[in-house]
Amino acid sequence: MTFQSTDFESVASAISPLRHTEILAARHTRHMTRSGRPGGGEGAERTALLAAARAGSQDAFRDLFTPDLDLAWRMALRITGSEASADDALQAGLISAYRSLDRVAPTNLRGWFVRIVENAARDLMRRERRHPTLPFASDTHEEAGEGAHRERVAVEPQAGATSDPAQRAEASELAAALASALAAIPEERRRAILLYDVDGYDYAEIAELTGVSVGTIKSRISRGREELRRLLADLRPGTAGAPLSLGERDE
Q1: pTM over 0.85
Q2: CATH number, domain at 50?
Q3: How buried is residue 153: exposed, middle or buried, by Cβ count under 10 Å (0-12/13-18/19+)?
Q4: pLDDT tens, 174-212?
Q5: 89 with 47: CB under 8 angstroms?
């Protein structure tokens, strides 16, 4: 299938509503329950949507990837540390997915799409490193606020947070230490831990998303947790063996 230039204009009009409705709404559903989270299987319905999208249906293209937008956006956010950059990566990923519809097999579409968005996020970060932009003086406070946000994005706030100032300060200090430790471990281990402990995906789902075996995922999570405990012990003496505050689940 060969797309004409007018096809890209059409898909832009289809993607634009996604960005301003589903993408924004998805930010408020980051703590989806397992029963409410979209499944990873490629049923007959999704296969039919792929065929219709290949035939040029904008509605089918929207419906094909809407269930995966929240996860893809969060994965991009973890790479870029910026909501605006995550938006840009998701937009670029949607365009790239549209252009590649004729080459993708109708299996594991979710993992394929998420990896496309992750690659778009990495490309964006590489471009920013090659061509850094200088902020306007008036943006100083905004940049400072964004920097604080970047320290928080890896560790999402826990429900029922304490109102005691001392305990809040302690929790904030631990969250900052954990964010630093997460940033220090290899990306594949960090991604596996966050998908398992924060997002609630099981081993098989993470393996499907990342394109590796279940055994590899278990190893990455185990080794990553071990590294985190060691790093936290170095950053905050006395925390060796303490919970990681990631909603850590039993393996």
Answers
A1: no
A2: 1.10.1740.10
A3: middle
A4: 778 888 888 899 999 999 999 999 888 999 999 988 889
A5: no
